[in-house]
Amino acid sequence: MRGYLRWVSEKCGSCLGAQEQMVPRGMQNPKHPGFVAPDQPYSCGQCIASHATQYAFPPLESENVLAWDLYMSVQDQQRVGMDLIGLDYTVLPFAFDLWEVPKDQRRLLFEKLQIANHEVTARRAEKRKEEQKRRENEKRVDR
User: Fold this and answer.
1) In a designed cystine with 117, which of 42, 87, 105, 110 is the match (CB 3.0 to 4.6 A)?
2) Tell me: the pLDDT tens digits for 71-82?
3) 68 and 133 housed in the same domain
C-alpha cells in the first residue's frame, strides 16, 4: 500500500473530483488507465494496476483494497494547525458505518488507515522540503 500512496495518491484527487462532472455527461476519458465506460466512474483498481506496472511495485493486494478505497474517500478530512497534521480520525466511525464495515474488521482497517495517513503525511513533508529548497535556490539565483 505504501508504494501506491507514494506515487499514485496525489494523482487521484483531481481525477476523482473531475468524475463528478464527467460521468453524468458521458465524457470520461477513454485514455485514462481506469476507464470503464464514458458514463461510468473510473475503476481505481484498474488504474492502480496500471500505475503498479509503471512504477514497478506489486499490485494492490485484495485485503488492502477496502483500506485504499476508504482512505481515498476520507483523505480530504485533514487536521490542520501551523501545518498539515494528518487525517481527522473522528470521521472514521461515520465512514465505517456508511461503508458497512463489520465491527470485527474495524481495528485492522483502522491500523491500515493509520499506515496510509503516516505515508501520505511523510510524502507531503518531503514535497514541502523539496519546494522550500527550490525557493531558496531561486532566491540565490535572483541575487
Assistant:
1) 87
2) 888 887 877 776
3) yes
The total number of structural domains that make up the chain: 2
Query: pLDDT tens-digit profile of 81-122?
Result: 766 677 889 999 999 999 999 999 999 999 999 988 888 888
Please give the pLDDT value at position 5: 60
pTM greater than 0.85 (yes/no):
no
The answer on 49 and 96 residing in a single domain is no
Measure the CA–CA gap between 32 and 124, rounded to whole angstroms.
25
The backbone torsions φ and ψ at residue 26, rounded to the nearest 5 degrees and listed phi first, read 65, 40
State which of 13, 42, 60 marks the end of a domain.
60
| Helix (H) or strand (E) run with residue 80 in it | strand 78-80
The C-alpha atoms of residue 84 and residue 122 are separated, in whole angstroms, by 11
Query: Which residues, in sequence order, are CB contacts of 57 under 8 Å at separation 6+?
Result: 3, 4, 7
Mean pLDDT over the full length of the chain = 83
Together in a domain, 38 and 74: no
Q: Determine the Cα angle at 36 with ends 32 and 40, to 5°.
A: 105
In DSSP terms, 86 is beta-bridged to 79
Instruction: Look at the block and give the residue holding cell 510524502.
Output: 123
- Distance, in Å, from the CA atom of 52 to the CA atom of 59, rounded to the nearest integer, reads 6
